[in-house]
Design goal:
single chain; alpha/beta; Rossmann fold; six-stranded mixed beta sheet; 8 strands; globular
Length: about 280
């Protein structure tokens, strides 16, 4: 099966990145690599290619998404009812606070320790797209050399609501239109603090960052259009814009505050244009 990336992307971005991973390799140890990027940046595609390339070199690799650690539907619905005025928790899932943090911490510990563990699977297609836990699991019985752990909020730090507002203003993200008093965003930031212990397991951090904030909406609109061709139903352009705007403040919190070891810059054509290494 041909690679979704061009020869130039392989030579300029992927091969140098894999070379950095190989420098981290230590026999009988597990290296955990976080891969962060906003909606539409191509995290899942990148992980699949990196996993294949590493396995061709003889390494044992495990990969998974933070999405598979979402709370069951009943608990996410309880969260919606608890905060009925908070727009960040009226969408089915996604924001910090909708994940099973304790289980994720246990799994990361087990992977780092070389213990047998089970990775949960979250089925996004059921319950009219709200998703729920699948009875299926992925068993990891052999110590991986590398773990690729991806998600839009992997590594997300917490800041004050005012700091978040300033960051959004810098990037023309309409946080104040969504949340004029910043009380709703403050709740998300409190949830984010609970994720801090997870990021201590990360040995290396890769970020996928588009050239501008507007590209997230453009790519998400394209994705929704393609889904409509298949399903014959989906969100309107306005609904997609509202959905994306709920994630952008916290996506750019990641972009601005995470000190990634490698940042892949993505241009408007969705091409990996360059990689910037941590100084």
């Amino acid at each position: 099966m041909p690679s979704p990336f061009s020869r130039q992307e392989h030579e300029k971005i992927l091969h140098p990145l894999i070379a950095r991973f190989e420098k981290l390799y230590k026999k009988n140890q597990t290296t955990i690599i976080g891969i962060q990027g906003g909606q539409g940046t191509g995290k899942t595609t990148l992980v699949k290619v990196l996993e294949k390339e590493l396995e061709l070199k003889g390494y044992h690799v495990t990969s998974f998404s933070i999405d598979d650690f979402y709370l069951p539907l009943s608990k996410r619905e309880a969260l919606q009812k608890k905060y009925p005025q908070n727009p960040f928790y009226q969408i089915p899932r996604g924001l910090p606070g909708t994940h099973r943090i304790s289980l994720l911490q246990t799994v990361l510990y087990d992977l780092r320790s070389g213990r047998r563990t089970e990775l949960p699977i979250f089925d996004k297609s059921i319950n009219n797209g709200k998703g729920d836990l699948s009875p299926l699991k992925t068993v990891v019985s052999q110590r991986p050399d590398f773990v690729l752990f991806e998600g839009w909020c992997v590594g997300i730090p917490s800041v004050t609501p005012l700091a978040l507002a300033r960051l959004c203003s810098k990037h023309n993200i309409p946080l104040k239109e969504i949340d004029p008093k910043l009380t709703h965003a403050a709740l998300v930031l409190r949830f984010i603090k609970r994720y801090r212990p997870l990021w201590k397991f990360l040995d290396y951090m890769v970020m996928l960052r588009p050239e501008s904030a507007s590209l997230h909406l453009q790519w998400r609109q394209q994705q929704e259009h393609e889904l409509k061709q298949i399903r014959k139903q989906g969100m309107t352009e306005q609904e997609v814009e509202q959905f994306v705007n709920l994630f952008l403040p916290f996506t750019y919190l990641c972009y601005e505050k995470i000190k990634a070891d490698a940042t892949i810059v993505i241009d408007k054509d969705h091409t990996f244009s360059k990689i910037v290494w941590k100084q």
